[in-house]
Design goal:
Elements (H helix, E strand, L loop, with lengths): L5 H12 L11 E2 L7 E2 H14 L6 E9 L8 E11 L10 H10 L3 E2 L5 E3 L2 E8 L2 E8 L2 E4 L2 E4 L2 E10 L11
Antiparallel strand pairs: 1-2, 3-4, 4-11, 5-7, 6-7, 7-8, 8-11, 9-10
């Protein structure tokens, strides 16, 4: 069976979700007792990210709500999260998952915040923001050299967390 390019599958996914993410939803908040509100646009962004990642058949993709870490002020805030994992071998001939996320969200007006950009052997970290939503991404398949040979983790792990930026929930801007 021939593998379809990830970009084609991503476009088909976008047609399927028909605007159910990509920041097309209204920015109404949902308040949890004792927690910051999660804007619907953040939830929509997580659904879109999960949809892009679910194009990869080898990845198990889960979404949840809870603390998002790694914010510039050092605090964690309540938001939505996406976690994808699967065998690294299943991604060997595929476009790395971060590339269609960057491309498709970038086409929708998301801008990368280079303060969060970092790449390591087999891994990446980056952040995208749009309309008061900040999404942080990190993961991959760690690689290292052992006895002169490049080794790679058997499991690919990728995470995203989206939160309303502080000015969207009543605080001061974080940039």
């Amino acid at each position: 069976m021939k593998k379809l390019p990830v970009i084609v599958l991503s476009i088909l996914l976008l047609i399927r979700v028909s605007g159910a993410g990509l920041c097309q939803e209204k920015a109404s908040g949902h308040t949890n007792v004792g927690r910051e509100p999660i804007l619907e646009t953040a939830r929509g962004s997580c659904r879109t990210i999960a949809g892009i990642l679910s194009v990869y058949p080898v990845l198990e993709v889960r979404t949840s709500e809870g603390p998002v870490r790694g914010l510039p002020d050092g605090k964690e805030r309540h938001g939505c999260r996406v976690h994808a994992s699967g065998p690294t071998s299943g991604l060997a001939d595929e476009v790395p998952p971060d590339q269609p996320i960057r491309f498709l969200l970038g086409e929708d007006g998301w801008e990368e915040d280079l303060r969060y950009a970092a790449d390591g052997p087999g891994t990446t970290s980056f952040a995208l923001r749009k309309n008061g939503i900040l999404c942080l991404f990190n993961g991959g398949a760690h690689s290292w050299i052992e006895n002169g040979k490049v080794e790679t983790s058997e499991t690919f792990e990728f995470e995203a967390g989206c939160v309303a930026e502080p000015e969207q929930v009543g605080g001061a801007p974080d940039r």
